[in-house]
## 1
Amino acid sequence: MTPPKPSLEMLRALTDENVLRSLMDHPRLTRAEISARTGISKPTISDSVQRLARAGLVVDTGERTTGRGRAGSYYSLAPGLGAALVAAITPRGVVAEAVDALGHVHGQVRTALEADAGPRVAADALTTAARQLAGKIPGRLRLAVISAADPVDRETGRLVHLPDAPFLVGDLDPSAVLAGTVTGPVLVDNDVNWAARAEHRAGCARGVDDFVYLHLGEGLGCAVVNDGVVRRGHGGLAGEIAHLCTAGPDGRAMAFTEVFAVLGLRRPSSTAIDVPALTGLLAGRGEQAERVRSVLVRAIGGVLAAAVSLADPRMVVIGGEWGLCPGLIPAVDAYFSRTPRPVPLTAAVLSSPELTGARARAVEELQSLIVRMAAPAPEG
Amino acid sequence: MTPPKPSLEMLRALTDENVLRSLMDHPRLTRAEISARTGISKPTISDSVQRLARAGLVVDTGERTTGRGRAGSYYSLAPGLGAALVAAITPRGVVAEAVDALGHVHGQVRTALEADAGPRVAADALTTAARQLAGKIPGRLRLAVISAADPVDRETGRLVHLPDAPFLVGDLDPSAVLAGTVTGPVLVDNDVNWAARAEHRAGCARGVDDFVYLHLGEGLGCAVVNDGVVRRGHGGLAGEIAHLCTAGPDGRAMAFTEVFAVLGLRRPSSTAIDVPALTGLLAGRGEQAERVRSVLVRAIGGVLAAAVSLADPRMVVIGGEWGLCPGLIPAVDAYFSRTPRPVPLTAAVLSSPELTGARARAVEELQSLIVRMAAPAPEG
DNA sequence: CATTCTAGTAAGGACTCTTGCCCAAATACG
DNA sequence: CGTATTTGGGCAAGAGTCCTTACTAGAATG
């Protein structure tokens, strides 16, 4: 609506951004290389590098080009610009890393958690890991990107408990937990959403800007990617499909999660799905197994019908502990391809996609933070 | 990822854009007013106005300021910059307008169509209306924005027929139909999507960036607004909910459109809903009416459960011929507020929202087209 | 050692935006 | 009616950014 006000300062900031982004794509470059890469003239690049070096964002590495011609100085991003914390929290444990603006991982800490250890223990594991990582890197932890195996409130970043859905990690506020260790923003999202982003970047949905990722594990979730971005909805609860109305046994309409309750596939006195029992059934051969399979296929079909109706994806990606059980995807595909609006189904291909997705975002976020550091504060 | 290359030309283009946008918000302004409004200095504005006047985009109106001080010259957008065609096509008729870059409507043409007139007749009505409007405006019709009462293919802009869903207007390719009369792009979308955009701009969902608009009329449709934008999905068919799996009579799972077939509420030998019969039943008092109402409420509830699960809206807007029947929304609300994830329901408030929505988009698009005319072609 | 090739620098020019000042023109007021 | 006030507009000077061209420095090649 209102275009930005033109100013010479803006041009300079743009030049600096070009230089910084080049050095984020390539760890070390001479000024001539930056010039060639950006299309900006050599003198202008020299100016910018000088400015950025004075500001401490860029350093002369001391290395020189070899080969014909005069030796050029390699520049790179200053070490000490800091790193981002990436962490994935599940009821089984916490995995944490530190990544720098180049995308290099500087260390990984894995902490296993006992079953039903609870959110306090998870929080402690997270802070400990963050402190350890903070010691390993030259600068500070400037931001954190967290993947959690529970629904996440979009405003606050807290994990939330939805009725009749499992609360796997439990009541946790990563932003508060990390307040002392991480200086900047803490971004939190659902593991399924991160997984979908990872598959979109480099997995089976690469370049597909509209797809749906269905996660079938202890919890039931899905990510909706529309116009290339995971859509989280007002509260961040888009894709929480436990209560989606679908077809249960005998063609009765019921909530998705209900189907598992009726089939006796929930963990005792819990709303989480009994994955071992379910995989056992999916592998079984008896009449009973056959019946359960067909009920599940129809129930999943109902969920997919909803996803197709509301999101019109180009494809559906299926992941999760039991979603990848052999035979399940073909069975669902066979059923779904006979419905009025079939859509291709694919199996998720990445391992630990939630960490991959969160890591990519952490790098992006850290990079844009550094770019903003170069520009003087936009008035105040 | 790759920031734009800085250049002085870019600054100038930005200044010009500031000037043009100012004159799009306010029909006439002096250079001093533009300067004050944009925060750009007077000499710079004078330069830009001179440039734009030479290019024929801006003209001195000849009017002068009155009041204290020296009289200033009022400038405005040049007439003859052209207009955009806005049209809404339904099986009942075609409504077409021409709007200019200031949002002024330059004429309206309404053509009634006989029932089942078919797409050829609608196409003729559209071209005739476009030709008439083209004669009434100073410049050319530079683009068109079309609302159609059928699903629209996102790639081609053609109306498409989905299985078991009514095809109200019928096979029509607005882009081809208008090729002779409109010089620029032809944007086509579903009437429900345009209505949702209108309610988002200025209706009951103003400022709500995540909501779902449920249209209950002859056809069943819905629009999903996420992060402030209507999400159309890969093929433009997001929101086509005829086959969404929901609860029918006796709690049986079935497609949404099936429910109406079972209840005998479809028009004879058609997949369109019999709206008169339905409104009659909704107003009725007998036991039969009661039963139908409760079935409908549950069926709609199932659809809303899907929308809430997948899109997490802040609110649900209900519109359409029978969606606004007295008593329906409260009944659905009473049912839905007892489900695990209730969301506020509201009635749509705008009249002919599809035209309003399309008009707003036409103005935006025409404005950005004019802005692009000011900038020299980005290399070629 | 001369040649060739490349990185970096210096000078000059073109362009844009801003500040400050002055002028022109119209109203307000004595 | 004449003067003060107020506002739009134009001009000049200055600072800043980027680009082109030409030149220098330095390293490998022959």
Note: Chain A touches chain B through 68 residues (CB under 8 Å).
## 2
Amino acid sequence: MTIKEVCEKYDITADTLRYYERVGVIPEVTRTPGGIRDYQETDIAWVENAICFRDAGMPVEMLIEYVKLFQEGDSTIDARTNLLKEARESILEARKKYDIALEKLDYKIGRYEIAQKTGVLTWTEDEKDG
Amino acid sequence: MTIKEVCEKYDITADTLRYYERVGVIPEVTRTPGGIRDYQETDIAWVENAICFRDAGMPVEMLIEYVKLFQEGDSTIDARTNLLKEARESILEARKKYDIALEKLDYKIGRYEIAQKTGVLTWTEDEKDG
DNA sequence: TCTTGACTTGGAGTTAACTCCAAGTTGTAG
DNA sequence: CTACAACTTGGAGTTAACTCCAAGTCAAGA
């Protein structure tokens, strides 16, 4: 699979893919004899994981660390497990914040919709802001 | 409430609070006759909202837009409602991505924990990466 | 009143994560 | 064999969101 095909498949730029490889977010990609990237299934699996974890706000640094440990072999399984658990906690915490924001948003939207219908904005004592 | 007290209450730096005010993420804060910030309940409510929505990944630009609309008065209620709904959609989408990453993480952690117990890492055909 | 520490401003600097560029190479269609 | 698009690299530039700094002002305690 060429870099272009991977770009299109995952809606990501070629620059980002090359950047991920350069800094170690994914291991080095398989090449043709001429030196052009030819993504194999394994390469693609790494790309998919990288995108997935980046989408969840996991820092690039953490992904680099994981790949590094992976390449050091089975002796780093404990370290990798810890890293993943740490990532899990961060993501859970972030998600909790998303839920809180959603609650606040839903409340505000509800109040605005009433205002739109009645033409009057109603406020309680402790919400003098918008 | 002084800027320091607000910092401590919300675990945020004074620089960030001043930055939020400068760029318009929150409206101008109440001052003492000497020009020093003296946060009132309303100011604090804005700070709280800003932190909450930033924590959910809402871009500073969007918060600025909201404050601007708010300050233009009731004629912008529709625009504000739309903005909030847009924010809601983005947050929901981001949250979905967090859930996908969590699933993947849980699966990987589970597999690593088995490896730790048995000393053997088991792989299925389509997961040759770590 | 003096000192000391917290506050003020405008502007410059930093960080993470890309994103773009120039100059050169590869590979395919005619 | 020749175009020509798509690929390669190292390195520089950009963006969002802070973060720091210098030089000056304010205010509470001795």
Note: Chain A touches chain B through 48 residues (CB under 8 Å).
